[in-house]
Structure to design on (562 residues):
């Protein structure tokens, strides 16, 4: 029962642990820094507010949310705007590659396919196991702030982290689905990773360009980063429903495409 | 006798390349069929489609009556598969592989017997195993559920003679129990020893499906001889002699079929040195190919 899922969880738990511990280490660094930073928040805030807004747009940071006076604003700028998405994207691509392209690249797919299990079962079990790992990563890497804040005796707003965890999970789900699609399309791990990473970098660039140039602002809708705003999530506790629908809907559609492709493709090359 | 494997008008095209171009082949229950052909002839492509890894462009392949494109799961319950260069999971131990296979196929009753028989250490990780031990693990995994059909793609390539012999013994035992075996190989003595029939594929087309005894009659020998007396090459141009080449103080005679007429002629001469070897499988292929062309 669920032998492909349990095996994937066993094979990937070390990666999961490494990514979670890395996230917790960064969080500890920021939480430990926060008391010092917050003491000088007035000066820092005025300094930041004087910088050109375009600079923050280019970094995907909401200028109006910029404040080091509370921990959620501080973390939304330092952690959720750049570091967390990078960690999460790399982890999602690693997990997605395990579903198909790693096996095809190494030739182990023949062993797997010689077993009496249909491709639908293999895909669904592995996909679900990967999603579970990513869900776990979201929980640890976002709610990890709570115990750290308690240890350091800092105030926190729990509901903001809940909103952030939900928004982040939907973002990483769509990234994972996209990486899974490339994992089943390609036969070389390097190419699958390059395409997944390349598309996401392209989307990030689109997001920056559209935020700086009014003439192409409608292009932002094709970027997943348009529907994921770490600042809004964590500092303002805002998560528009349409973002959830777009990311969730895209994830579902892309996942179904990946499943169909996996069922039809030649596995042994 | 029922057919376990039925291949009908099977074609596989990769872009402009016709890897397999319309083959028809049946394999009967309990027989060992050798699938022969040079590199790039379409052997592995056929086996991959046979196992349902890849899908035929045209035609159909069925095993135990199940279409391998649409309904391969039921058939695979009773199929053991062993590729020549077994590729398993580097970080898993032998036991990890065995338990994983049992998780999908169900508990195996004879796993301990197989481990003992092949003198295999299942605690070692796959990446630490020698190529022979990797092949042993592949063999154990393919036999552990006592399959009714074994599909093997050059299973003894790169193995030492002891392990080769052990594999031959296992295969003969499996055949005695009624297991059907489909085996691709380059090794003519192996094919002669194991197989009931052979199918020869060239450029994606079957050029011959022969009983092994018929193939034996077509087998080529090379006789290299140095004489201590006078000789004429024309003396040796007898029935079944394919070619006579002159070398220093001797001849290289290529014989297809019965050797005895040539040996009787050789016996009338003073021989300094004599060596009789099997011609390569490729030479036999060439004979088939020349005929098909």
């Amino acid at each position: 029962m669920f032998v492909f899922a349990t095996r994937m969880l066993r094979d990937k738990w070390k990666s999961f642990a490494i990514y979670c511990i890395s996230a917790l280490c960064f969080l500890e660094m920021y939480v430990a820094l926060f008391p010092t930073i917050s003491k000088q928040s007035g000066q820092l805030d005025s300094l930041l507010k004087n910088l050109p807004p375009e600079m923050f747009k280019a970094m995907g940071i909401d200028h109006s949310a910029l404040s080091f006076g509370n921990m959620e604003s501080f973390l939304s700028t330092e952690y959720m705007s750049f570091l967390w998405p990078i960690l999460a994207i790399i982890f999602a691509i690693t997990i997605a590659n395990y579903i198909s392209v790693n096996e095809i690249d190494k030739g182990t797919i023949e062993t797997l396919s010689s077993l009496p299990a249909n491709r639908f079962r293999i895909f669904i079990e592995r996909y679900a196991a990967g999603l579970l790992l990513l869900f776990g990563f979201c929980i640890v890497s976002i709610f990890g702030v709570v115990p750290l804040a308690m240890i350091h005796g800092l105030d926190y707003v729990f509901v903001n982290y809940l909103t952030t965890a939900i928004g982040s999970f939907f973002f990483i789900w769509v990234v994972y689905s996209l990486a899974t699609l490339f994992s089943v399309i390609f036969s070389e791990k390097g190419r699958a990773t390059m395409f997944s990473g390349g598309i996401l970098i392209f989307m990030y660039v689109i997001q920056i360009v559209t935020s700086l140039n009014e003439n192409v602002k409608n292009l932002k809708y094709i970027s997943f980063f348009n529907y994921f705003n770490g600042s809004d999530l964590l500092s303002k506790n805002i998560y528009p429903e349409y973002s959830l629908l777009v990311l969730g809907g895209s994830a579902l559609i892309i996942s179904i495409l990946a499943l169909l492709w996996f069922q039809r493709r030649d596995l042994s090359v | 006798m029922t057919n376990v494997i039925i291949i009908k008008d099977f074609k596989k095209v990769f872009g402009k390349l016709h890897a397999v171009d319309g083959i028809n082949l049946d394999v009967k229950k309990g027989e060992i069929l050798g699938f022969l052909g040079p590199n790039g002839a379409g052997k592995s492509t056929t086996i991959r489609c046979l196992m349902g890894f890849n899908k035929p462009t045209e035609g159909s392949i069925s095993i135990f009556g199940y279409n391998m494109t649409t309904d391969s799961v039921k058939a695979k319950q009773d199929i053991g598969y062993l590729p020549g260069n077994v590729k398993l999971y580097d970080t898993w131990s032998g036991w990890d592989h065995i338990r994983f296979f049992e998780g999908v196929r169900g508990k195996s009753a004879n796993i301990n017997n197989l481990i003992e028989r092949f003198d295999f250490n299942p605690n070692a990780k796959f990446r630490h195993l020698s190529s022979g031990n990797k092949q042993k693990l592949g063999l154990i995994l393919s036999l552990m559920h006592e399959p009714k059909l074994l599909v093997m793609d050059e299973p003894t390539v790169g193995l030492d003679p002891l392990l080769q012999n052990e594999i031959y013994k296992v295969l003969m035992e499996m055949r005695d129990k009624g297991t059907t075996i489909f085996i691709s190989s380059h090794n003519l003595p192996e094919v002669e020893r194991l197989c009931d029939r052979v199918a020869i594929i060239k450029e994606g087309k079957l050029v011959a499906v022969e009983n092994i005894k018929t193939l034996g009659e077509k087998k080529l020998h090379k006789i290299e001889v140095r004489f201590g007396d006078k000789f004429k090459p024309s003396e040796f141009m007898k029935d079944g002699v394919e070619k006579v080449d002159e070398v220093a103080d001797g001849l290289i005679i290529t014989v297809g079929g019965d050797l005895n007429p040539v040996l009787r002629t050789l016996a009338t001469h003073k021989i300094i040195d004599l060596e009789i070897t099997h011609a390569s499988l490729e030479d036999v292929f060439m004979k088939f190919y020349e005929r098909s062309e």
In short: DSSP finds ten helices and 14 strands in chain B.
